[in-house]
Design goal:
This protein is mainly alpha-helical. 85% of the residues lie in helices and 0% in strands.
Length: 166
Amino acid sequence: MSGWYLFSVWLHILAATVWIGSMIFLGVAVVPLLRRPEFAPVRTAMLYQLGLRFRWIGWTVLLLLVITGIVNIGYRGYGWDDLFSGALWQGPWGRTLAWKLVLVLLVMGISAVHDFYLGPRTMQLLERGEASAEQLRRVASYLGRLMTLLSLAILALAVLLVRGGM
């Protein structure tokens, strides 16, 4: 087994850990803490600043996941020809990979809307004191939860890909 392949797998797992771990940490530690009354004056600004700080980390690990995913598929013996000919998608392994990639694209799309539209727009509305900000904040919150669930589903599909069971 190639040392580069092992490094790519390690980096893929590390990136997935950072991605999922950060979302879970925000959901189970940071947000509940900020809901306490003493943090009410700084809650929104704190969450927004945390989001901005995490955004570059999140997109970096998503990029790493895509790159290492392509490398890992290559080390499994598949090439670009297999992608375009459809050979990559055949059989249980290929169908599982296809579902995983559909979910990855969905997570990336939701992340883009969350990070580059909803977050900034919500802060603009909050700064102006507009009531519609609360509705957008709730949508952003639900999208964050959805991304976490979809990411956990991606992780489950990844386990199926490497450990079988399809």
